[in-house]
Amino acid sequence: MSDVNQVEELSVRELFDKKTEYIIPIYQRNYAWGAPEIEQLIQDISDAAGFNTQPGETVSLKQANYYLGSLVVYQRTTHSQQSNVIYETIDGQQRHTTLSILLAYLKHRKVLGESDLAGVDINLTFDSRPKSSRALKDIYIGKSSGEPEEPNIHAALNIIQRYFKTKGLDTEAKIKQFCEYLLDNVTILRVVVPPQTDLNHYFEIMNNRGEQLEKHEVLKAKFMATLSNDDERNCFSTIWDACSNMSRYTQMGFQSDLRKEVFGDNWQTMPKSFDAIQAKHTSKQQKQDAMTLREIIDNKTPSENTDDEEREKEERFGTVIDFSNFLLHVLKLMPEIKGVSLDDKKLLDAFISKDNGLRVETKTFVYELLKYRVLFDSYIIKPDQHNEKRKWSLQTLVANSSGTRTSSSYNTSFGKNQDSLNEKLRMILAMFHVSNPALVYKRWLNDALSILNRNVTHDADLSIDGEVYLTELERLSDRYFEQITGDQCLKFSEENPGILHQGTGVQNFVFNRLDYLLWRNLYDGKAICDITKETLKEHFTSFQFAFRTSVEHYFPQTDPSGASKMKDVDRFGNLCLISPSSNSRLSNYSPQDKKTFYQENNRAESLKQAIMMNYDDWGPEGLGRKNIEKHESAMLKVLSVIKV
C-alpha cells in the first residue's frame, strides 16, 4: 500500500466484500442511530431509486447513482498469513452499521438469489464490544435469542422493517428493485489515511472539522446578487442570518438596539414590509457610524445579565426542522409558486427557474421568511432541553424592561389564563411531530403554518386565536386519518381484517392520534372504559409524546407458554406503540410480565398501553379475548365515531 492517501469510490456491494473487514475501535461511541436518522437514510435511497412514498409529492426520477458520503479508514497492520484486508473506521461507522442492518433485512426477504449476493457479507466488527459484533452477525444469519443483545441494533432492524411496510415498499417487486439499486447504484467514498497518521489526533480533527458550504448558503448568495445596493444587501443578510439559526428565537438574531427598532418594545410587532425593516436597519447603521468614541462609551448600557446567562436562555430550545427544510416550507406557502417538493436535496432546484433565475422576488421572499419564522417561534412546538418531564415547549419570547435594562423571558403562547388551551395545542403539535421523525416531508408543519397564516388576527403583532388554531389542527388530524383509512370500516372481521388490524403495518400516526384523543378526553374529565386520569395516576400525568416507532403486540406474536400463536394477534386491540429498545427487550414477555416490568419502573409508554395494563386478563381465549375485543371497540370509537 502506498504511503499517500487512497480514495476509492465503492458501491455498497463492493463495501460489503467478504475479503475486507472493518473494525470499529474502542474510542468510537456505540451505535446510536434512531428512527429519524435511519428513516432519512432509507428515504434518501428510495428517492434516488425513483420510488414515491410521500403523499402530495411528485414521482422522483431515478438517479443513475446515489452518493452516500464518505467512510474514512486506516489500514491496520496485518499478519502475512491473513488474506483479508483489515481497516479501522475513523469516520462513518453509524452509516456503515445502519447499512449492515439494512442489508440483513433485505437478505431475509429473499428477493435475490444466492448468486446475486455472492461475495457479499457483513464485514463489520467492534473492538472490545463482542456483544455488538455478535448482535450484528445474529441478525444477518437470522439467529434469534430470548433476550437480544445490543437493543439499539435490534431496534434499528425493527425500524427498518416497519418503514418498508408502512411506506408500501415491502412488496416483492419493490424490495427487489430497492435491493438491486442499493447494491449497485448507491456509492460511498472510502478514504484511507496514511500509515503514520496519529489516529487520536485525526479523529479529533474529523469531529471538529469545518463544514462545506451548505446549499442554503449558496441560495443566500444568489438572492443577494439580485439586490441593487449595499443597504439592501446588509438588511437582507441580517434577516436571513437571524432566521437561519433554528435553535433560538428569531428576534435574538438581531442586535439588541435594532431588535427594539424592528420588533417594538415588546419584541412582538411585525414590520409591514422589507423596506420598512431596511429603513430602520439603515438608520441604525448610519447612527452608529456617526457616533464618536465618547458617545459610544456614554451610550453603552450596563447589563446585569452575563453573556453566559443570555446564551443559556438561547440554547434552551431545539427545533423540529432545520433551516434548509424551513426555506422550502416558506416557498411552498407562497400562493404564486406551484409544485414545490419538501425535499431538501432539491433545495436549489426548487428556487431556481429554468432560465437560471430565481422563482421568487428577493425582498418578498425574505420578508415572508421572517414572518413565518416569527409565527413558527411562537406557535409551533420546540424541544425543551431544560425540562425532560415536558419535552415540548410552546412559548413566546417577550421583552422585560426595567429602567434602561431589557432582558428576555418566555411566556406561554396563549396567556396565563389559558393553560388548558396551551396544553392541548402543545400536545397535538407534538403528536404530529413524533409521527414523522425525519426532517424532510413534514406535511403537518406546512399545513400548520398555513393555518397560522390564514388566522392571524392582527398583522402588527401576528397574534392568533388559540381556539380557532386548535379546532383547525384537530380537523387536520381528522383529515389525515381519513386519508389513511379511506372509506374502509374500522371494525375487525376474520374475512377482511381491515387497515387498522395489520400489526406492524399500522402507521405511527394512527397510534399517536389515538393517544392524543385519549389524553384530551381524560384531561377534560371524561372516562374511557370506566378509566379516568385518576385511575391512570402518574401514567397520565407524566405522559408526553416521544419518538415511539415500534408496534408492540401486548399478547406477543410468539406465545411465551409455548402454545400455538394467538389467532388474530395483529388486531388493533392487541397493539400499542412503544420505543424500539423496549420492544426489543420485552417482545416475547407475557402481558403480566410486561405489566410487572412497567409497574416496577413506574411508567407506561403510551396511554393506550396504560389502559391495556388495567385489564387483569389478556390473551387468546376466554375473558382475555373478551377484554381485547372490549378494549378494541372502545379505542375505535375514540379514533372515529363516524366509521365504527
Describe this structure in words.
The chain has helices spanning 12-15, 35-48, 93-109, 130-141, 151-166, 172-185, 199-206, 215-224, 230-244, 256-263, 274-290, 293-299, 307-314, 323-333, 347-351, 362-379, 419-434, 443-454, 466-485, 508-523, 533-536, 538-541, 580-586, 591-600, 607-612, 622-639; strands spanning 6-11, 20-24, 66-75, 85-91, 124-126, 186-192, 382-383, 392-393, 395-402, 405-412, 456-458, 463-464, 550-553, 575-578. Strands 1-6-3-4-2-5 form a 6-stranded mixed beta sheet, with helices on both faces. It has a two-stranded antiparallel sheet with strand order 7-8. Helices cover 46% and strands 11% of the residues. It is α/β, with parallel strands linked by helices and 644 residues long. Residues 301-308 have low confidence and may be disordered.
The average pLDDT is: 86
Q: Got a strand count?
A: 14
Largest sheet: 6 strands, mixed
Cα-to-Cα separation, first versus last residue: 69 Å
What characteristic shape results from the CA principal axes? globular
User: What percentage of amino acids are in beta strands?
Assistant: 5-15%
Residue share in helix? 40-55%
Assembly context of the chains: single chain
User: Helix count?
Assistant: 26
Low-confidence stretches: 301-308
What topology, given as strand order, has the largest sheet? 1-6-3-4-2-5
Radius of gyration: 27 Å
What is the structural class?
A: alpha/beta
Could you list some keywords that capture this structure?
six-stranded mixed beta sheet, single chain, two-stranded antiparallel ribbon, 26 helices, alpha/beta, 644 residues
